[in-house]
């Protein structure tokens, strides 16, 4: 389970914050798809694309979507729009457009980006969850971790979510600390009870 991943049935101590945690999870899911598609674009479209200033911001705007969308259907249209935008930018900078074969491949990869089993999607999701865990740990050390290089395109958005996440976790701990102390106390007692007793040598 990731840093803010919630099961369908939440523990009692998370019920009051369930909606906010789920909202953050939806925001993170969207960022995961955005970064996955951006990586696909820059890895598949060739070196000419990486030199185009302003293209990344345009791509982020195009890729952003609403939760009410049918994402699978939206991605088919999105892939067409992205390929058209890339060709437009390439033409403006006197680069040749994407070949039909490359555009078809790119379109397929963009549509596959929403699949949680997609290897790039899984990698980005893992990096985001690790960043959030490190950010939570850093709140006790007064140092802010840098996101991995692949997440640079959404660093601002990711840090905004991380701040909300840390505040919510800390608030939850303050409210329910007596429950957590009791649970941890029971766990420690069980571990002590299960420790093997070493016999003293005569």
Summarize the helices and strands and which ones pair or pack:
Blueprint: H1 18-44, H2 47-50, H3 55-63, H4 71-92, H5 100-112, H6 119-138, H7 155-194
Structural commentary:
The protein is mainly α and 202 residues long. It has one domain (12-194). The protein is built from seven helices and no strands. α1 packs across α3 (55-63), α1 packs across α6 (119-138) and α3 packs antiparallel against α4.
Features:
202 residues; mainly alpha; 7 helices
Distance linking N and C termini: 49 Å
Number of helices: 7
Oligomer state equals single chain
**Overall number of domains:** 1
Low-confidence runs of at least 5 consecutive residues: none
* Order of H and E elements: HHHHHHH
From the alpha carbons, calculate the radius of gyration and give it in angstroms.
23 Å
Name the beta content range.
under 5%
Anisotropy-based shape: elongated
| Helix amount | 55-70%
User: Would you tell me the overall average pLDDT?
Assistant: 82
Count of DSSP E strands? 0
| Classification by helices and strands | mainly alpha
Largest sheet: none
Give a quick precis of the structure:
It is built from 7 helices and no strands. It is mostly helical. It holds the Pfam family Tcp11.
